Amino acid sequence: MATVVTAVTNKMNGLFIQAKIKKRQMKDRFAWKFLQKHEGIDGIIVALILIVIAVGIGIFFRNTIMDVLSSALNTVQSKISALFSGTSGGVS
């Protein structure tokens, strides 16, 4: 009878140890899956920072940018008008 109790106790101890090991493995898998660093996040953060900087520069220099674009478009418009009107001063 003592050997049966010992065998059952050993079996229970083995099952208990296996359950503890399985618990630890599940905990480690959870930690690895959800706490590891994601590769794509760094690129997104850098892109967002660059977008914010570009918008800030655009807002800060908006008058200068508008003046340059207006001047360039007026020059192009006058060259096209001169080209279609037949004057020689339009194309250089």
Overview of the structural elements:
The chain is an all-alpha fold and 92 residues long. The protein is built from three helices and no strands. The mean pLDDT is 84.
Q: How many helices?
A: 3
Q: Low-confidence runs (pLDDT<50, min 5 residues)?
A: none
Beta-strand residue percentage: under 5%
Major β-sheet profile: none
Helical amount among residues, as a percent range? over 70%
Short structural summary:
With 92 residues, this protein is mainly alpha-helical. Helix content is 87%, strand content 0%. It is rod-shaped and about 120 Å long.
Helix-strand layout with pairing:
Elements: H1 2-35, H2 39-60, H3 62-85
Describe this protein with a few key phrases:
single chain; 92 residues; mainly alpha
